[in-house]
Every structure is written in C-alpha cells, then in structure tokens.
Amino acid sequence: MHELFEGPRLESPRRIRFALALIGGALLAIIALACLPPSQRAQLPLDAVTRAEAFEHALAAAITKVRPAGEEWAIAIDPADINAWLATRLPKWIEHDPTLADLTPITALRIASTTDALQVEQPYGPFIASLAFTPSIEDERIAVSIATPRIGRLPIPGLASELTIALQSHLAASSPHAIARFRLADDRRIEVREISCKPGRIALLFATLPSVD
C-alpha cells in the first residue's frame, strides 16, 4: 500500500546538520540580543515593528543593568516576541552589518514553547520542518534533549537519540559557543544558570559576574 503523502527524504548526515541548524538557531535567537554591543544599537534602522523593537530594548536593558556581583536575576520571554524580532529586527542587523550574513537562515525560524520544551519550525521546500527539544544547563554548558523531528506531519523515527548525541558532540567541539556565559561590552560576564519552558513562556535565570582583571 502506497503512502498518500510522502515528505522529502534526507540522508542521515544531512538530517543531522539540518536539525543542528534548527536548534542552534533557536538557542542563538533567545540570547543573541544580549551579545549585541550597546554602542551599535543606536545606529540601527528604526522602521521595524513596534513589538520587536520593544522586545530588543527591554532585553538589552535587562542584560546590561548594573547589579551586585553574583546576584541572580530572571527574565520571562514570550516566544511571539522572539518571532517578531527574528522576522523584523534581525534582518535589519544583517543589513547593517554584513558580517552577520551567516544568521540569515535564522530569520525564517519560528519558535514556540510548550511544557518543558521548545518547538522550532522552519520552511523546508514546500514543507515545514519541526522538532522539539529541552534545553538545560549542565556543568555551566548548554545541553539539549531532542524529541522526534518531523517534516510536515511525518515523524522521522529513530532520529531523536542520534541527533541528541550528535548535538552534544557538536557543542563539545565548539566549546566557546556551548559555554553558558558571555561577555558584555564593559567586560562583565553574564552566566545563564537555568532555562525553563512553559506554554507561551520561556524563563531564563542569569547571574551577572564581575569583569576579570
């Protein structure tokens, strides 16, 4: 009996690369704004959607706020704000700074949050590729556990564990990007200590660390 619908077939290495790109893009989208130098922010075009602009400014203000060394603080993000920023503000950043051109595919990502997981979707030809994954922080590094990916409505069975192993290896190999810590323009460091997801809400727990002399 023939399938009434058959999605595109991907070779295993290609499936892994594609899924890694989806997950990497989602994680980058969540914390990318924190890494953008405030000195550049004033030079950006101002014709983006109001919601995306407000999200960018609010997140930047939270990240750069002066706090006692080691103090923990948290923010909650609506995935709709991330999606608005990806679709409207990130293209402006790329237009403003050609060195960010590698981020262009991320502008097509759409992110949703469910109980304990993030759902990421991206167009793949005439279909929508999607997967859910649970992000966490383990030993000061980003870790993920991946659920079954899908292309359209069709699941790709047996790929979740393969992707999880591949992504962990990828993160280990690219240690600067896997460490859940980044530096601000004034040399203070922001450490991501916890990521949690609920329907319509992504919560992140941070700590601001002093600069290292």
Give the gist of this structure.
By secondary structure, the protein is an alpha+beta fold. It has one domain (12-63, 80-180). The chain has helices at residues 12-31, 38-41, 50-64, 79-96, 160-173, 175-178, and strands at 72-77, 110-114, 117-124, 127-138, 141-146, 150-151, 154-155, 181-183, 189-198, 201-209.
Name the helicity range.
25-40%
Average pLDDT confidence is: 73
Strand content: 25-35%
Distance between the termini: 69 Å
Cα gyration radius (Å): 18 Å
Please write the string of helix (H) and strand (E) elements: HHHEHEEEEEEHHEEE
Shape: globular
Largest sheet: 6 strands, antiparallel
Instruction: State the domain count.
Output: 1
The parts where pLDDT drops under 50 for at least 5 residues are 1-11, 33-48
Strand tally is 10
Task: Give the secondary structure arrangement, pairings included.
Elements: H1 12-31, H2 38-41, H3 50-64, E1 72-77, H4 79-96, E2 110-114, E3 117-124, E4 127-138, E5 141-146, E6 150-151, E7 154-155, H5 160-173, H6 175-178, E8 181-183, E9 189-198, E10 201-209
Antiparallel strand pairs: 1-10, 2-3, 3-4, 4-5, 4-6, 6-7, 8-9, 9-10
